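The freezer alarm interrupted the setup, so I double-checked each line after restarting. Inputs confirmed:
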Amino acid sequence: MTTIRDVSKLAGVSVATVSRLLNQSGYVSKEAEVAIMAAVKKLNYKPNTIARSLAGKKTSAVALMVPDILNPFFPELARAAEDEAAARGYTLVLCNTDNNPDKEKMYIEALINKQIDGIMISSYTISPGQIVALQERSIPIVAIDKPYDGYPILSVTAANREGGKLAIRHLLESGCQKIAHICGPSHVHSAYERALAYEDSCAGMPWYTPSLTAFGGFSVAGGYKAMKEIYRMHQDVDGVFAGNDLMAAGALKAIHELGLSVPDKIKIIGFDGIVMDMVFPELSTVSQQIYTLGKTAMDYLIRQIHDEPIERKNYELEVRLLPKSTT
Amino acid sequence: MTTIRDVSKLAGVSVATVSRLLNQSGYVSKEAEVAIMAAVKKLNYKPNTIARSLAGKKTSAVALMVPDILNPFFPELARAAEDEAAARGYTLVLCNTDNNPDKEKMYIEALINKQIDGIMISSYTISPGQIVALQERSIPIVAIDKPYDGYPILSVTAANREGGKLAIRHLLESGCQKIAHICGPSHVHSAYERALAYEDSCAGMPWYTPSLTAFGGFSVAGGYKAMKEIYRMHQDVDGVFAGNDLMAAGALKAIHELGLSVPDKIKIIGFDGIVMDMVFPELSTVSQQIYTLGKTAMDYLIRQIHDEPIERKNYELEVRLLPKSTT
DNA sequence: ACGTTTTGGGAAAACGTTAGCACACTTGTT
DNA sequence: AACAAGTGTGCTAACGTTTTCCCAAAACGT
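Predicted 3D structure, all chains:
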């Protein structure tokens, strides 16, 4: 392995000068620069990141903590985060927490020891206090998908409420007379917001009744069950707003089994905009531009790391109605 | 930040002794141990991984290089790899290469500078020479999904050929009289092997003809197009073996559009066994136990890192027929 | 001609570990 | 009694950087 010392020797300068040049800090003469660059090229010198980290206190590594990369929402987020991180010279460490607080603590502990430069975190279970504590240890954090109002925590979320309203309005405009909602876990912020949007929009309607909402747990199987349940009580339902795309797919499966035609007899719309081209008819959805979300969040994280001034507050991304074949 | 020096002072021993105890190397008396452990606990000391890496030449970090985490095959692999890595005290770095040789080189360069302990790689483009070169730089490698016969490269793959045969046999036993194949890119080893299995099994059949094979590029859209193409030439096809689940889903979509009933009129089977519960009817498939694959590969990687004796050769995992609703 | 900046560069102290070496004290063996 | 092996411990040199300090020369203003 060739070190900075080798370069300095070959170039006939001190290691300090080489370091200064490579880090653009301090003054270096043109001659020295030329000699050093030549030496670097000749020796194919690459600075050792570890040593650099130890001396400089920055690792050029950031972590992405997600509940479960198997949930199709997260690969897209990860992809965006990784692209952006790589583009800015950062390395991305992946952590699956399963929303298990113990695992989360373990990972956080480990990441601190690794002197990770920042963490992008999506978690239903982590407390604002924990995040603030991390920040006080001067570890920048960006929270995904859940705002922490009242705390100095930077978060990037989608406009869940507006998206939900968009979905309902779309169903109504498409002629739906009775709309059901399949909701996710209420302790999950986005699920809660979307459910609230449904209630806000529909509570005043003559057909509205609480039993039009069923719990789908954000999963395909849950959406399937919820749809069956809803249909058992309300055969006349003609519109379904599912809190995410997975549940919408499950609902679609159920509807199909029930022999109802989509979108003639019943319309259905999901939320998220994950890639789901394997499902047919293709699901209408409210897209939250997951890639942009991940990219933006990583951008903010890195800007925090670089101490660029940033308001520590929630950044809400626009959502887009994406009507396809189920409405 | 509390350092090993703080601990040694509080415990009244030298740093060397603390290090020895914490690394279980060399002798440490019972009294010293007690004193040190007390100090560690009191100061809440956690060794600094960076310093440890610099001194010890190991980072406890491994990388997973995949073409694209968006392809549903890879999150499952990543999940398994990460689980196993975390369980063994390793951190997982994620790299998306898009099968772009330049990106691959960039990442490899970066990973070397980070002194990554090992790399688990799935790539269609990397050459065995590159891998061997890395190994000669004493970076352990495990290749996924593609064996490198004739090179001292450890790889973990699925029994693609056997799986393909299993799929065909299953279709035949289910009564299929004319089976088509939708294949992936021929330079992708697994796609090639599966296509070969189809040919091996079917070339002798009276109905066999090359136009029963269409190219689906391993994607949903590709599978869809391929199916349409096949049907245009062979309305009497009653069985389809798709080279992966995504193409199978695409084909299913096409079949649905063509108004054929599955599995009565035409049966279809995929390959991979990715989680696809959003598709209905649920796809029959040949499962390659992706989780096991990832876990096994990571296990081998770490065993290589620990210099545990391992044959550098291909490890082929069994596949399983998973008949569901499309056959 | 004389301060004061600006420019350029070297020596050496961190950064927090690990590991090789040396030394000392117990045991056990002949 | 002498010697080897085993046990316990501390010093200190790495590991490869960055980052103070500090010094010297050149450029500049008066």
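Quick read of the result. Chain A has a mean pLDDT of 93.
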